[in-house]
C-alpha cells in the first residue's frame, strides 16, 4: 500500500517552518536548518529505519534560502516529493535538485509580492490611520500587529498546501507559461509605486531658508515690514514637488544598498543631522 502523509503531519511540518524559519538564519546553510526542522515530522512518518531517516534529514540540512512566506510552497512541494520517494517513485537526487531550483523563483516572487508590495501597503494604511487623529493614533500599530501575522499565516499555509497538492508539475507549468516573469515584473512595478507614494506622503523635509526684508510700497507711501522676498522650499516645490524628500530618500537608499549601512546607523545619522541643524537654527536666531 502506498504511503500517504496525513493532514496532521502536513500541518505540523508547516508550523515548524512558520515558527522556526527566523531562528535559522546563518551564513553556512541560511534556512537549511529550518527546512530540515520542517521536514522532520514528514520524514518520521514516511521512513521506517533509522538509516533512512538520517539520510533524509542530511539532504535537507543543506544550503537553502528563499523569501520565507512565499517560500513555504517549496516545503509543500518537497513534502510531496518525499512521499513519492518513500514509495520508490522519486529519487533523493531529484529532491535535492528541486530544492535548489526553487530558490530563485520563490525568492523573486516573495520579495516582490510580500516585502515590496504587501508590507508597504499595510504600513501605509496603518500610518494613515495613526496620523488621522491623535485620539486614535494607537489604532494603526494595533491593526498592523494583528493584520501582519494573520496575513502571513494565511499566505504561507495556503501556498504550502498548494505546493503539496500541485507538486512539481504545477510549479513547472506555472514557470513554463511565462506567468512567473509577468507576475514578478508586475509586483516589482507595483512595489516601486507604493514606495514612491510612501516617500511623497510620509517623508517630510523642508529648507526653511527665507529672505525677509522691509519693503517700501511707493504706491501707498508706507513701509511693509517682514516681507518674504525669497523662500527656498516654496521655490523648489514649484519646480519639482517633494524634491528634497525624494533626494533624502535616494541618499538613504544609497547608503543602505551601496555602502551597506545598517538601519540603526542610518537612524543615528538622521537623528544627529536633525539635532545639529536644529541647534544651528536656534543658535543663529533663525528659528527665533
Class based on secondary structure composition and strand pairing? mainly alpha
Order of helices and strands: HHHHHHHEEHHH
Radius of gyration: 28 Å
Number of separate strands: 2
Strand content: 5-15%
How many strands, which pairing sense, and closed or not: the largest β-sheet? 2 strands, antiparallel
Largest sheet: spatial strand order: 1-2
Spans of at least 5 consecutive residues whose pLDDT stays below 50 are none
Shape: elongated
Span between N and C termini? 86 Å
Count of discrete alpha- or pi-helical segments spanning 4 or more residues: 10
Q: What is the helix content?
A: over 70%
Mean pLDDT value: 85
Outline the structure in words.
- The model has no long low-confidence stretch (mean pLDDT 85).
- With 288 residues, this protein is mainly alpha-helical.
- Helices cover 70% and strands 6% of the residues.
- The protein has a two-stranded antiparallel sheet.
- The chain starts with 6 loop residues before the first helix and ends in a 5-residue tail after the last helix.
- The chain has helices at residues 7-20, 32-46, 50-60, 72-86, 92-132, 139-176, 179-202, 232-239, 243-257, 263-283; strands spanning 210-217, 222-231.
- The radius of gyration is 28 Å and the shape is elongated.
- Helix 5 (92-132) runs antiparallel to helix 6.
Task: Give a brief description.
The chain has helices at residues 7-20, 32-46, 50-60, 72-86, 92-132, 139-176, 179-202, 232-239, 243-257, 263-283; strands at 210-217, 222-231. It has 288 residues and is mainly α. Helix 2 packs antiparallel against helix 3.
Amino acid at each position: 500500500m502506498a504511503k500517504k502523509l496525513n493532514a496532521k503531519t502536513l500541518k505540523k511540518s508547516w508550523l515548524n517552518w512558520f515558527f522556526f524559519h527566523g531562528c535559522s538564519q546563518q551564513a553556512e546553510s541560511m534556512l537549511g536548518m529550518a527546512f530540515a526542522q520542517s521536514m522532520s515530522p514528514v520524514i518520521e512518518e514516511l521512513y521506517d529505519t533509522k538509516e533512512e531517516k538520517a539520510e533524509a534529514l542530511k539532504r535537507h540540512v543543506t544550503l537553502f534560502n528563499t523569501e520565507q512566506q512565499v517560500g513555504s510552497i517549496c516545503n509543500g512541494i518537497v513534502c510531496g516529493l518525499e512521499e513519492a520517494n518513500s514509495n520508490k517513485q522519486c529519487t533523493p537526487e531529484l529532491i535535492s535538485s528541486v530544492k535548489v531550483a526553487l530558490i530563485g523563483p520563490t525568492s523573486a516572487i516573495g520579495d516582490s509580492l510580500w516585502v515590496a508590495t504587501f508590507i508597504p501597503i499595510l504600513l501605509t494604511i496603518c500610518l494613515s490611520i495613526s496620523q488621522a487623529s491623535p485620539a486614535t493614533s494607537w489604532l494603526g500599530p494595533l491593526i498592523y500587529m494583528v493584520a501582519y501575522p494573520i496575513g502571513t499565516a494565511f499566505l504561507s499555509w495556503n501556498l504550502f498546501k498548494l505546493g503539496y497538492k500541485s507538486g512539481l508539475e504545477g510549479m513547472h507549468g506555472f514557470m513554463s507559461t511565462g506567468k512567473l516573469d509577468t507576475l514578478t515584473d508586475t509586483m516589482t512595478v507595483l512595489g516601486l509605486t507604493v514606495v514612491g507614494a510612501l516617500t511623497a506622503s510620509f517623508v517630510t523635509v523642508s529648507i526653511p531658508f527665507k529672505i525677509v526684508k522691509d519693503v517700501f510700497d511707493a504706491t501707498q507711501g508706507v513701509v511693509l515690514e517682514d516681507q518674504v522676498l525669497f523662500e527656498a522650499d516654496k521655490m523648489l516645490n514649484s519646480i519639482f514637488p517633494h524634491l528634497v524628500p525624494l533626494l533624502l530618500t535616494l541618499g538613504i537608499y544609497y547608503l543602505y544598498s551601496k555602502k551597506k549601512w545598517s538601519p540603526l546607523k542610518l537612524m543615528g545619522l538622521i537623528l544627529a543631522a536633525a539635532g545639529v541643524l536644529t541647534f544651528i537654527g536656534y543658535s543663529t536666531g533663525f528659528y527665533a
